[in-house]
Amino acid sequence: MTWWLRLYPRRWRERYGAEMAALVAARPLSPAVIVDLIAGAIDARVHPQQIRRHQKQRTEEDVMLSRLMRRCAAGPNLSPSEQRLANGVLVGFTLAFALLYVAAAWRFKGSELVDALGIMAFPAALVCAMPFSYLKGHSRLSQFVVVGGTLALLAVCSWLAASIR
Question: Deepest in the core among 76, 92, 138, 147, taking most CB within 10 A?
């Protein structure tokens, strides 16, 4: 496998070689992988200046964007017990909405609106669990507005989906 990495320029191998070797070793060698390696090597040789350019072009906006992305990716700062509570609420709402859908589907057989609302059961459960996770620490009014508004939007989307034929 390391033979394929020798197709890349020395500077590129110094910067990315270990990571690429791990990626290549993690998957079986196939024609598609070989084509990707050769194409990457050609690109690295044709555009060698891009390695240096990407290292130097860290602007203030890049730093701010990466901080925001890390903060969003990290999610809410919850203790393990708060995480269990949020997960329990999510599972509970999912089961409740699923049971409501089954009952409504049985009661109103063939209703496209019931089917459309049933599709929204899990997204609605996610929204209902938000006060225990992403909205934790916000005021009750803001939680109510976000959860209520999103549930209303899901209901309108379901109604529109059911009314389109």
Answer: 147
